[in-house]
Design brief:
Layout lengths: L4 H12 L31 H9 L1 E5 L10 E2 L2 E2 L7 H4 L4 H5 L12 H11 L3 E7 L25 H11 L3 E7 L15 H24 L5 E5 L4 H4 L2 H14 L4 E2 L46 E4 L20 H13 L3 E6 L9 H17 L17 E6 L2 E6 L7 E5 L4 E8 L7 E5 L2 E5 L9 E9 L13
Helix pairs in contact: 5-6, 5-11, 7-9, 10-11
Bound molecules: (2S,3S,4R,5S)-2-ethynyl-5-methylpyrrolidine-3,4-diol.
(2S,3S,4R,5S)-2-ethynyl-5-methylpyrrolidine-3,4-diol binds next to loops.
C-alpha cells in the first residue's frame, strides 16, 4: 500500500484555510508534498510552440468514427445521448459494434475540401479524433485490426487530413482516447493481479499506438487525451507522466492537455499541490471558466471546446432533439473565451459519407465571414484586464484593446472603464472609420456607437496609452 498521509495532510490544510476566490488551491511552497508524477513546471510554457498554440485561439474539432454510421439510432431506436457513445447507450457488444467497419466507405470524403472549409471558417487548428472510445483507428495502426485499413475504404484518412490541413497552413492536433472499448485488456478499475497484468499490457499497447502516431505524423502539434478518468488510470499516474514525456521526446514542442494527467495520488488535471499538469487546462468542455471562481485562468493556458447541439460530438441523424446554437451564439463563446485568455474549439461531426451536414457547412461559412472581417480581435489576442461591461467583451493585443459588441445600448453610448494609469487615445472601427470617445470621469469613457447600423456583432479598436500623469480635474468622493 502506498502511504496517503501527505495527501491527507494537504487536504486538511486546504480545509482549514479555504480561499473562496480561487478555483485551485496551492500550498505555501514549504508545505508542498513531494511528488514524482506531479506538475513539471509552474505557470505558462514560454516557448514558441506554446506561443503558437495560444495565438491560434480558434480551432475546430472533428469527431469522426464508426458511430457516424448509425448516427444515434440502433435497431430502430433513436438515442438522444451523444452519438459517439451509442455503443454504450444501446449496450452493443464490442464485436458487434466493430462490424460497422464493413460499412465504412465514405465516398464523398475529400480532405482538401475539409481543409478548405476550415480555412474559410478562419480556424487556425483542427483537432481530429484519431481513435475515440470505440477503438476504431482513422490511421492504419499496426497494433490492432480495428482500423481504416481493414474497411472497404482502406485508405489512411488521418494521413490525408494531416497533409491537407498542413498544406492549408492549419495546425493539426490529435484527439486520442485512452479508454478503448475494443481492447480486451482495457480495465475501468484494477481489482486483482489479473487486472493489473492486463492493464500493464494495455498501457504498452497504448504507448505503441502513441509512438506510431508521433512517428508517422511528425507535424502533429498537440495530443489531446480523453477517456482518462477511470480508477485504472488514476492508479497509474506514473504512466500519464511517462506518456507526456515520451511524446515530448519524440516531437519537440508538442503540447499535451491536462486531461491526460494524474499524479502519485491519482489527483487529476491539478496535482496534489494544486499545480496544473500538462501544458493547458482542458476541463472546459461545453462550458467556460467562471470569471470569478476560476480567475486564475490567466495564470495558465486553457482551451475550451463546444458542441453546436447541446451535446453531440459525433454525427447524429436527428438534430431536432436538442437546441441548436445559432452562429452568433457560437461567436459569442469564441470571443468570450479569448477575452478570458483561452482558446475555443468548435466541434463538427461529419456524416458517414464523408461530407458535412448542411447546418455545419452553413455555420462554418457564417463564422468565416465574420472572422475574415473581425479576426483581428481574436487571433493572438488575450485578456485585457479591464472591468467587463454589459455590451460585450474586451480582448487585447499589444497597445490595442478591442471592444467586441454583442449587445447594443439604447443610450447610444458604450461605457469603457480603464484601469488606473491607462488612457484611451483613439477609437475606430476595423475599417479605419473614426469613433468618438468622450472622457466622462476619471478612467471612464463613453465610446459612441458607430453611425451606421450593424446587423452582427462588431468591433471597436482602442488605442491605449499608459500614463501615470494625473489630472486634478476629478475629485475622489469623500465617504
Ligand atoms: C465524455 C466524453 C467525450 N469527450 C468529448 C470531447 C467527446 O469526445 C465525448 O464523447
Amino acid at each position: 500500500m502506498k502511504k496517503h498521509y501527505p495527501a491527507i495532510a494537504a487536504l486538511l490544510i486546504l480545509f482549514l484555510f479555504p480561499s473562496p476566490m480561487q478555483a485551485q488551491k496551492t500550498l505555501p511552497a514549504d508545505m508542498e508534498i513531494e511528488l514524482h508524477y506531479g506538475a513539471d513546471r509552474l505557470g505558462k510554457r514560454p516557448d514558441q510552440a506554446m506561443q503558437k498554440f495560444r495565438e491560434n485561439r480558434l480551432g475546430a474539432f472533428i469527431h469522426w468514427g464508426l458511430y457516424a454510421i448509425p448516427g444515434g439510432e440502433w435497431e430502430g431506436k433513436v438515442y438522444n445521448g451523444a452519438a459517439e457513445w451509442l455503443k454504450s447507450w444501446a449496450k452493443v457488444p464490442a464485436d458487434e459494434w466493430l462490424q460497422l467497419m464493413q460499412q465504412w466507405n465514405p465516398e464523398k470524403f475529400n480532405a482538401k475540401r475539409w481543409a478548405q472549409m476550415a480555412k474559410e471558417m478562419g480556424v487556425k487548428y483542427v483537432k481530429i479524433t484519431t481513435k475515440h472510445h470505440e477503438g476504431f483507428c482513422l490511421w492504419p495502426s499496426q497494433f490492432t485490426k480495428y482500423t481504416v485499413a481493414n474497411t472497404p475504404y482502406k485508405k489512411d484518412i488521418l494521413g490525408e487530413l494531416v497533409k491537407a490541413y498542413n498544406d492549408a497552413g492549419i495546425d493539426v492536433h490529435f484527439y486520442f482516447s485512452v479508454m478503448d472499448w475494443s481492447h480486451p485488456d482495457w480495465r475501468y478499475d484494477l481489482k486483482n493481479e489479473e487486472d493489473e497484468k492486463a492493464f500493464q499490457r494495455f498501457l504498452t499497447f497504448t504507448d505503441n499506438q502513441l509512438k506510431e502516431l508521433a512517428t508517422r505524423y511528425p507535424t502533429v502539434k498537440d495530443f489531446w487525451f480523453d477517456g482518462t478518468w477511470d480508477a485504472s488510470i488514476k492508479k497509474n499516474g506514473w504512466w500519464t507522466a511517462h506518456a507526456e514525456r515520451m511524446l515530448k521526446d519524440l516531437i519537440p514542442g508538442v503540447t499535451v492537455n491536462s486531461r491526460l494527467r494524474a499524479d502519485d495520488y491519482g489527483k487529476r488535471h491539478f496535482d496534489s499541490n494544486g499545480h496544473l499538469m500538462g501544458d493547458y487546462e482542458s476541463a472546459y468542455e461545453r462550458r467556460l471558466p467562471d470569471p470569478v471562481k476560476d480567475l486564475q485562468v490567466t495564470k495558465w493556458d486553457w482551451e475550451a471546446c463546444m458542441t453546436i447541439p447541446e451535446n453531440q460530438w459525433g454525427y447524429h441523424k436527428d438534430w431536432s432533439l436538442s437546441y441548436i446554437k445559432n452562429p452568433v451564439e457560437v461567436l459569442e463563446r469564441i470571443v468570450h473565451a479569448v477575452s478570458m485568455g483561452g482558446n475555443m474549439v468548435v466541434n463538427f461531426g461529419p456524416r458517414p459519407d464523408g461530407d458535412f451536414r448542411a447546418e455545419e457547412k452553413e455555420l462554418a461559412k457564417v463564422i468565416g465571414k465574420w472572422t475574415a472581417r473581425n479576426g483581428e480581435c481574436i487571433y493572438a489576442c488575450g485578456y485585457a484586464g479591464w472591468e467587463k461591461q454589459d455590451w460585450g467583451y474586451y480582448t487585447a493585443k499589444g497597445h490595442h484593446v478591442y471592444m467586441v459588441v454583442f449587445n447594443r445600448p439604447y443610450s447610444g453610448q458604450l461605457t469603457a472603464k480603464t484601469p488606473k494609469g491607462t488612457q484611451i487615445i483613439k477609437a475606430s472601427l476595423l475599417n479605419g472609420e473614426n469613433i468618438k470617445v468622450t472622457e466622462t470621469a476619471r478612467n471612464e469613457y463613453n465610446v459612441s456607437m458607430p453611425k451606421h447600423e450593424f446587423n452582427e456583432p462588431f468591433v471597436i479598436k482602442l488605442e491605449i496609452k499608459s500614463s501615470e500623469s494625473t489630472t486634478n480635474k476629478y475629485r475622489e468622493a469623500l465617504t
